[in-house]
Amino acid sequence: MSENTFPVYTVDAIVNFYRNEVLTGQEAKHFTKSDLTPTPKPEAVQTLYMRVLHLLYRFRPECHSMVSSVCRSNPCDSSQTDSMVPLMENIQNPVYHEGTTAITSVYIRMQQFLPMCLVYDFSLNDLLAPKKQKTLTVLSGIMNFLHFRKQRMDMIFEKQTRFRADMDRLQTYSRGNLEAEKKIEMLTTIPPEQQAEADELAAALSELQATNIHEYQEVEAKNESIAEWKSKIAEKTQKLAQVKVDICSLREDVAKLRSQIVESPEELKAQMEKMRENVKNIKNTIKETDESMVEMQNSVQSMTHTEAEIQHMYNLLQDLESSMNNTKHRAEEHKELTAQYEKKQKELRNLCVEEGQLKRALGMKLDKESKQNIRRQKKREMKEQHVQEVLGQCNQIHQKREEMADRIQEISGETQQLKAKMQSMRDVCSKETGKAQALYDTLTASMDELHRRIQTHIVDLKQDVAKMSADF
Predict the structure, then answer these.
(1) Alpha helix positions (H), 189-264
(2) Is 85 helix (H, G, I), strand (E, B) or coil?
(3) What does DSSP assign to residue 66?
(4) pLDDT digits over 422-466, tens only?
(5) What radius of gyration, in Å, describes the C-alpha atoms of the chain?
(6) How far apart are the C-alpha atoms of 148 and 143, rounded to whole Å?
(7) Which of 247, 242, 236, 241 is nearest to 279 (CA)?
(8) What is d(CA 215, CA 219) in angstroms, rounded to the nearest whole number?
(9) Mind listing the pLDDT tens digit for each residue in 384-425?
(10) 247 with 280: CB under 8 angstroms?
């Protein structure tokens, strides 16, 4: 057992597994530990093997039989009927061969299947007279293979589920990309009926921008001139205030001086002249100030008008800014949609790559399955050819057996005839033997008498010779 590459399970574990995973109905209820220990029952072991073949290859147990009436009442699918042994009409009493054919079919298919379970020493004796340890080893190998098969099927189902989810997500992303492309096209494409209006708005906008820049420059120049005029007005106002202060101080000085001045006509005249000159200068200054005030008022009026125009331009600039903001917002949306589109494209490429990998894996798997199917088809054809050859040999053997049976019957008849002849010959021989024995006895006596006479005659001759030699 140490040479096995799979664990050998206990009897309880094997019984529970096959009752839950392989057998169904009454077979599962009736299958117990006593069917495997201490001595496995051949019927239970054969049933287990048939159910395993049915689970893996959909080969029904009744299709192992060679009798065609069974498969007519319970027809199998094409994969099963292709492997079924046909009815040999030239065999006498084919029903007698049904059990043997079923066992042979199970044995052939188990020999083809068990190498996948890493069991290579399966023999026909394991079906007809199974031993406990060998049966437990074979069932453990099958159990290990079924565990592996279930695990791989779960992995394949998970991969199929993930593949379907990826395909659904790919379709969703594709629809999202198409919608984003449509939105981008709608945002970036100007309808033909609005193209002329858009061109006019673009030209008006560019002209408005140029006008705004020019007027802004003019407003800046006017603001600078207003600032200069304001500074000049402040200086003039400051000078005017200073002049008024000087006039008040002069008036006070004049009042003081009047109280102190001695009445002198010449000095009075001189002072009056000076005061007239000062008043004239002040009037000139006031006149200049009034003129400056008029100019300033005109400038202020022009500034008010300019401010109204600037306010109008400012409103236009605000409208332009709002339109620019909308354009910027749309540009940002376009940029975001472009980024999303690139991201979706990248995900789509990744999904396409993954789909390509899955397709290649599926193609390799299908190729492998096709190769395996071709190998199975070749093995099936070789097996069918081998079965046909075996059946042909069996037919020849049966024909030879019938010929030999006929010859044996003929030989048996001839043997009986020979035995009768031999018996009659024995009787005749016994009679002849009696006669021959009597004749033999007579001849023996005669021969003895003849030998005695010859002996006496020889003795007489010797005596005569002796006498004759004595005479000469």
Answers:
(1) 192-260
(2) coil
(3) -
(4) 888 888 888 888 888 888 888 888 888 888 888 888 888 888 888
(5) 69
(6) 9
(7) 247
(8) 6
(9) 887 788 777 877 887 887 888 888 888 888 888 888 888 888
(10) no
Examine the pLDDT at 87 and tell me if it is beyond 70.
Answer: no
What count of other Cβ atoms lies within 10 Å of the Cβ of residue 391?
16
> Cα(160)–Cα(166) distance, rounded to whole angstroms?
10
DSSP element (H, E) containing 366? helix 265-471
CA–CA gap between residue 56 and residue 37 (Å, rounded): 26
Quick check: 139 and 14 in contact, CB under 8 A? yes
The pLDDT of residue 147 is above 80: yes
Of 271, 241, 270, the C-alpha closest to 257 is 271
Contacts of 232 (CB under 8 A, 6+ apart): 292
Q: Which amino acid is at 338?
A: T
d(CA 244, CA 187): 71
Instruction: Give the model's pLDDT for residue 78.
Output: 36
Whether residue 72 has pLDDT greater than 50? no
Contact 90, 398 (CB under 8 A): yes
